[in-house]
C-alpha cells in the first residue's frame, strides 16, 4: 500500500460532531497533522516545482513544501496565483466493509476540491476551504478486498468568484492544498449521524437525534425493520449514569427523534469551571445493541439580554476576548494538536475567556476550549464585499452550525465579518441551532448587539452612552509594539463602569509571519498587514501579553508600593465571574536580590503558601501573610495567585529595600589646571564652566546632562537658559551647582567616586506628550544592561501594567516588535527602576541609581515608513513621541504608543498630552566601575 493506514476506533465523543460517528473506525489516509503527515503522489500545475509528478506530505499547504507561489490576501484577485494540485494515493478496503457505511472525510482543503474513487467521481465538488466535507463510498465506488485509488483535484482559486473573494481576499496569507486530515469513517449500517443538544443551567435537557437506520432498498421491496429502539443516557465523562434513561421507539425509520430530560443540580460549564458531561446513545433491534454513539456537552445557559448585557448561567459576564486564526509559521494552515493545545493554554493563562476566529478552528482546538474554559465565537469566513453566493453560503452555514453546535464553549455565531454578511442565511443559524444562540454581524448592529470595530476613545465613549449592548469584536488593533495592552486600561475601566458594555475582543493573537520556502525560510509578515499579534509567530510573548494578563486578572491588587507600616495585609479585589477567593491559593517569597557589580544570583529568604480569603465575586478584602521577624531585610516581596485547579492566575512583586551599593572609597581631588575636572579615585568627571552640565566622564560614551526634554503634539520644545555656575568643596566632596530663573541643579562628586545629581526644573506650561531629564549615551558604546526594577519589558504611558519588579538583564539589540522575535527589546522606558547597570563595550560599567524612577535607555526603533499611511512597511499610527537626542533619560511624563488605526492620544486619558502639576524634580546617582 502506498498509504500508511492507521485504524483508530473512536466513539463520537472523541470525534467531530458533524460526522456523528457511532461505534466507528477511523482509517487515516493522511497524517493527523504536519508532524505525522503521509506522503501522497502530487502534481502542481504552475509555479515552483510544477509540471511533474512527485511527492507531498498530507496534510500540508503546498506552498510550504516548495510548490506554487505565495500571495497575501490584500493583493488584487487577478494577480494572485491560481495553481491547482492533483493528489493520488491508494487504500485497501477489507471485504468485511461490504456491510458497513463508509464515508471519505476531508477536514479542510483549500479552496475547491473534486474527488474521484477508482476513476469515478465521488460526488459534487466541495466549495469552501475551512469546513469539513464528506463523500459516501458504497459498492458502486469501492472495490472490496482490493486496493482502491483516490484522486483529488484541489483548486487554490475556486470557480466561484464570491467564495474566492470571501476566503482569499481577507487579510490572510493565501494557501492551497489538503491541509487538515483525510480519513475513512467506517460505521455500522445503523448509526446515529449527528445530534443537536440544548442543556440549560436549570438541568433542562433537549436533544435532537438524527439516525440513519433504513438500509437501501429496491423498488417495491418488502418492508424490513432493522432498528426498533433508541436509548440515551446522560453520564459523567467517567461513564457514571446521571438522571433517568431516555427511550424512543423507532418504527421502521426516523429522520429526527427529540429527547427531553431534566437533571437535578448539574455541574455547570463556565470559563472558571468547565464541567463536561456526555450522552450515550444506543441503537437496538429486539434488544440487541447495533451501535453506540457518545457525544460530549455541557450544561450552561448563555443569553443576550437586550439593552442589558451578556449573561452566562444567569450572571452578567464581560467578554475578555482575543481573535485567533489557525496559523503555523512553518506549515501555514496545517497545525498539530500539540501547538493547538499550547496556544489555548497560553490564551487562558493571559486571563482571556473567549476566542473569536475568522476561519473555523480545528476540532482539537474546540476540545481544548471546552476543557480549559474558553468561550468561542464561531464565524462564517467572509470579509468585506462581496458576500458568498447564497447556494454556497447555505451549505457552509449548515456545516458550520452542525460541526460546532454541541460544544458548550460556542456562545455566539458570526455571519461573516466587516460587511461580509449574506442576509439570506441569517435564518439558517436559528433553524439548525437547537440552542438558538445569538447571531452577530461583526462591526455592525444586528439583533440588538452593536459590534462596531476599532472605536477611538471619543467614539467608544459615545457607544457606551447608548442603550444598545456593545461588544467590539475587534478593538485596539496591535502593530509594532502598539495596541493590545496600550490603552487597554482606559478602555477596560470604561467597560467595567458601563451598564451596557459586554467586553471586547482584541485583534489579534499572533503575528502571521510565514516561513517562506522561496526565501530560505525568512519569516514574512507582508509588512504591516499581518504583524499585529500579542505573541510572535512561534508564540513569543510580547510586552502586551503581560499587560493584558494583569489588566484582565480576576484578582486585582491596587497596592503599588508597600506602605511604611506594612504588616502583611494585602488588599484584594475579586473580579472573578463566579469563584470565591478561598477556592484560590497564594504563594509568597521574600527575595534577596544581589546589587550592581555582583555576579551572585538572587536568593529566597523565606516563602510560604496560604489559602485565599473568603471574598465573593465583586467584593474586596484582605490577604493576610505572616512573615518572619527579619522580613524587612529582604529586597522584594513576590506573590503569585493560583486558581482552584492549580493554574497560575497572576504574579506581583514589590520592593522592600535597596541592596547595598559599594563604592570605591576614594578621595576627591580637583585637577590643578581645570576647576571643572574632578577626579575621585579612578573616575574622572568633567563639567561645563558655562552651564554646570556634565560633559563626559570615565564611562566612554556617557555625558552632556542634565538636559530638559519635553514635547507637545506639535513637536519638541526648545529651552534657552542663562546659567550661573559655582563649584565648592564640601568636606571630601565637590559640588557643582547651576541655577537660572526657573531651574536649578547640582552635581556632588563624592569620595566613593559617585556623582549625585539633584535637579529641579519648572514644568512647561504646555500640554506635554513627554518630559524627561536626559543625558547623552552613545548607542555604539552600550553592550548590555542589568537592573532592579520592572521588567523585562518596557512600558509606555498608556501601557504601564505587565512588567514586574525584579532583577533583570539583557544584551543590546535594536529589535522591532513585530519584525524581530525571540528576544526582549533592549531599548525603551523601564519602570520603577531602583538601579540600572549599563555595561559598556569598553569594559566599564555605568551605574544609574534612581530610587524607583522611569528610566529610558536609548531611542526605540520602529518600522520605517511614512506615518499615518497604510503602506506595507509603515508604522501607520503605531509610533511614539520620544526625545530625538540624548540616550539616557529619567521620564516625568511618559509617552504613549498608538495602534494600527489610532494615535496614542486617541486611545484614552493615559495616552493624552497633559499639563504637569509639579516641577520636574528628582535625584539620581552615577558611578563608574
From TrEMBL:
GO terms for molecular function: hydrolase activity. Pfam families: Glyco_hydro_2, Glyco_hydro_2_C, Glyco_hydro_2_N. Keywords: Glycosidase, Hydrolase, Signal. Residues 54-187 form the Glycosyl hydrolases family 2 sugar binding domain. Residues 310-520 form the Glycoside hydrolase family 2 catalytic domain. It catalyses: Hydrolysis of terminal non-reducing beta-D-galactose residues in beta-D-galactosides. Its EC number is 3.2.1.23. InterPro entries: Bact_Beta-galactosidase (IPR050347), Beta-gal/glucu_dom_sf (IPR036156), Gal_mutarotase_sf_dom (IPR011013), Galactose-bd-like_sf (IPR008979), GH (IPR017853), GH-type_carb-bd (IPR014718), Glyco_hydro_2 (IPR006101), Glyco_hydro_2_cat (IPR006103). Residues 254-300 form the Glycoside hydrolase family 2 immunoglobulin-like beta-sandwich domain. The keyword Iron does not apply. Residues 1-20 form the signal peptide. Belongs to the glycosyl hydrolase 2 family. This is beta-galactosidase. It comes from Pontiella agarivorans.
